[in-house]
Amino acid sequence: MASRKCLLVVDVQNAMFKLDPPLFNGAAILENIKVLVKKARSQNGRVVYVQHCGHADSPFKKGTAGWKIHPSIAPAVKEHVVEKKHSDPFQESDLSDILMNSWVDHIVVCGFVTEGCIDSTVRRAYSLGFKIELASDCHSTTDGKVLTAEQTINHHNEILKIFSDVKESKDINFNE
């Protein structure tokens, strides 16, 4: 059976762009993700969105403006949106079923935040047997107490090579 690729867009929600400290290169990363979404659609790749649902005091509280997926990459009518409460989008969600029922065996990962949901997504997808590509220029985070955001991103682009093919978005194709 031919490989079926899916772009998994993780937590690209309005509240991400209002964090303090801010996302590293947030506007540029969003533009890269926007281009990757268009590429996936134009090459007949599937696009699935993951949307974090935060607690009552969270800027990601379900139904709020911050919870909504950023309008520049909004899902198309037939694209799935998977809500999650954990950093691992497969935990207590129907993500695995959606992917398997669509015959997806290859996932391209992008979104936020690098050391949390992106790391968890790549590792869990790998453990479930999916082939994974991480779009190295399509994920970001904020500065931490130990590492800058840029250091965290570079570190994860290196260590996640164990579980995925780490590529720039320009080198990712969905019609393979």
Number of DSSP helical runs: 4
Which residue ranges are poorly predicted, with pLDDT under 50 across at least 5 consecutive positions? none
Just name the CATH architecture: 3-Layer(aba) Sandwich
Helix content: 25-40%
Biggest sheet character: 6 strands, parallel
CATH class: Alpha Beta
Can you list the strand order of the major beta sheet?
3-2-1-4-5-6
Total individual domains: 1
Q: What gap, in angstroms, lies between the N and C termini?
A: 12 Å
Order of helices and strands: EHEEHEHEHE
The fourth-level CATH homologous superfamily is Isochorismatase-like
Radius of gyration, in Å, reads: 15 Å
Shape: globular
Structural class: alpha/beta
Beta content comes to: 15-25%
Give the mean pLDDT. 96
* CATH fold label: Rossmann fold
Topology of this structure?
Layout: E1 5-10, H1 26-42, E2 46-52, E3 80-84, H2 95-101, E4 106-112, H3 114-127, E5 131-140, H4 149-159, E6 165-167
Parallel strand pairs: 1-2, 1-4, 2-3, 4-5, 5-6
Structure description:
28% of the residues lie in helices and 22% in strands. It has 176 residues and is an alpha/beta fold. It has one domain (5-171): Isochorismatase-like (Rossmann fold). A six-stranded parallel sheet has the order 3-2-1-4-5-6, with helices on both faces.
